[in-house]
Model the fold of this input.
Amino acid sequence: MTATATPSTTSSSPGIASSTLPIGKNLMGLYLRLTCVPFLWGGTFIAGRVISAHLPPATAGFIRFVFATLALLVALHFTEGLRAITGLSRRQLLGTMALGATGIFTYNLLFFTALSVLPAGRTSLIIALNPVVTLMLAAAFLGDRLSPTRWLGVALALLGVWIVVTRGDLSQIAQSLGKGELSMFGAVCAWAVYTLLGRKLLQGLSPVLATLWAAIWGTLFLGLLALRDIPAVHAESFTPEVWAGLVFLGVLGTAVAFVWYYEGLRQLGAARTVVFNNLVPVFGVLLGWLILGEPLSVSLLAGGALAIFGVFMVNRVKG
Done:
């Protein structure tokens, strides 16, 4: 999943009005868009894999969020008007700064670092742990209570990712954890913190405005770090494939997917909408196989299926 949706838990979303179900063609169109969202988010792993072979993580993240910020400004113009960008309180500005530091800056550094050494499909299955880690942190630090069924889902998701990481040899977990795996686990934790911070700090902000400000802060932080990469970045690094990947990540994988996802939250509610997130690793693995020629091993498929089922249990069961 890409790190640019306004933070929400698996059961609620701050700032989203109660849902009213659309009917007829509107409902079909909404479900089609919601199916496209995990397809786009799965595609971010393919684009990230291509980009990370040519650009350092900070530079890749910075350019990605230049495009994302511009696209979100367009979205704000058509939803609330550009004047809304100046209406934040000091607390909200500091809150969005914290979001930019965690969900944009830290997440993207680790995301591109992981994809520089790991296949896209394998990476997308590790990121499936996002809701699991978020729930575990909420239970540990915010006092959230989870039902036994949800804890079972957590255990199954962790076991599934364990199978993926160790390629089916569960005794080799220590030897299997390299730079890529640890970076992606770090990205998962950064996104979980981003989610929980947003739940606490951003009451009263719309999803578009909160995400735009987080993107602005994250772009600033990534840009400052990317200054050190200037001697290592050359014009020939920016191939047509790299530019296409950056535009895809910034516009489609960030702004468009975000708008469609929150349209689903508004009209269907969180419980129905978050189920579509289970398709992100599915599309990540399939696109990695189709576009990049990545192999489909038994451990990848079996562990991935178990992880997705565990996440499904976490998302669907309340309490």
The chain has 13 helices and no strands. Residues 3-19 have pLDDT under 50 and may be disordered. The CA atoms of residues 134 and 140 lie 10 Å apart. Residues 24-52 form the longest helix (29 residues).
